[in-house]
Amino acid sequence: MKTFLFFAMALTIGSYLFYVWRRPPSRRYGAIDAIVPAYNEEPCLEQTLLPLLQNKYVHRVICVNDGSTDGTAQVLARMSEQWGDKLLAINQTNTGKGGALMNGLSHVTTETVFLTDADTFVPNDDGLGYMLAEVERGADAVGGIPSSNLSNAGLLPHIRATVKMPMIMLKRTFQQLVGGAPFIISGACGLFKVEVLRKYGFSDRTKVEDLDLTWTLVAAGYKIRQANRCVVYPQECTSAREEWKRWRRWIVGYAVCMRLHKGLLFSRFGLVSIFPMFALVVFGVVTYAISWTQVTVNHGPHLIAGVLFPLLWVAVVTMIGAISALHHRKFVLMPLASLAVSYVLLSYAIWLIHGLKGLITGREPKRDKPTRYSNVVGTSPMVESSSSAG
């Protein structure tokens, strides 16, 4: 059933992308201010800010140091001397990501603002232009595609990258076409009309402020769109422990947002974008539980691998992995693609242990910060990965 739904969705999105892919980017250079909140980002901050400072669409970069205790302030001071008015460095006491973004927003002078994270590589290409073109066509907020930064990354980021970008592109575009808006504008890649963001803003009432804001804008009737040709590269977690904590934050935050935005649940957006995400988890858990039990009882636990890796499923994810391999120019992603089932199982486990509790109580765990690592300065994660492929 899930495979059939995937092929139906892929066919729909493929037809749509064929229609819109040739739309040109905007040519309004220097029309965007960019805000980068930073908390203890010393290892990667410079590599994030440099491409933004060089981007032809960016008028000014506003980096808000949210009470960092490492060398973030020193990195900003040094770069401010080099870049002058192009970089506005703000130092504040710690308020949380939402507070840092709103402080940065108060200094924006353009009509549109781009928000990203301090660990995210934003290529100096036409990506922001494609987002800006959506605004020019009437969108109030636009999301891009957060892929994976594979520069200096280990095994887990590579497994994550095998299906991440194509699946985000497929799901969110399908949600826009059928449900009226994509599920989320990621905090790593979002463009907003300044007037809209100032009216509603970010809140720290959840640990998933990007999801909370997206659903708030959908409920208020704003036009939310997806720009699939804007791809950025955030860092991935490099250990299973950090990956567990990050997915726990996402899943519990999703559950809490379902409580906060219960008025959306039975809307067109809710029925297409919110409920199916939860329903697929329930369906997956029940299906695996039944199939594992039947295989164990009838044939023994040694055949469970056949349930985890059915041939049709392996073929599908390998095809998806081939798209990611071509994009990243790293063909090891194809044989790694079937291991992406580990993230499916991870999400199911977290839903059972933490997600349902968050859905019932509305409480979230403390926000944990993943370990940052330094990347190759000025090098695209896509290009760098090709040099180390094989």
Alpha-carbon distance between the two ends: 35 Å
Annotation field: number of helices: 16
Q: CATH homologous superfamily - what is it? A: Spore Coat Polysaccharide Biosynthesis Protein SpsA, Chain A
Count of the domains: 1
The percentage of residues in β strands lies in 5-15%
Overall form: globular
Mean pLDDT: 89
Number of strands: 8
Computed over alpha carbons, the radius of gyration is: 21 Å
Q: How are the strands ordered across the major sheet? A: 3-2-1-4-7-6-8-5
Please outline the major beta sheet. Answer: 8 strands, mixed
Q: Any guess at the CATH architecture?
A: Alpha-Beta Complex
Q: Given the helix and strand composition, which structural class is it?
A: alpha/beta
Helix content: 40-55%
The CATH class assignment is Alpha Beta
Report the CATH topology name.
Spore Coat Polysaccharide Biosynthesis Protein SpsA, Chain A
Uncertain residue segments: 383-390
Structure in words:
It contains 16 helices and 8 strands. The longest helix is centred in the C-terminal third of the chain and has 31 residues, at 268-298. Residues 383-390 have low confidence and may be disordered. It has a single domain (1-390), classed as Alpha-Beta Complex (Spore Coat Polysaccharide Biosynthesis Protein SpsA, Chain A). Strand 1, helix 2 and strand 2 form a beta-alpha-beta unit. An 8-stranded mixed beta sheet has the order 3-2-1-4-7-6-8-5, sandwiched between helices. By secondary structure, it is an alpha/beta fold.
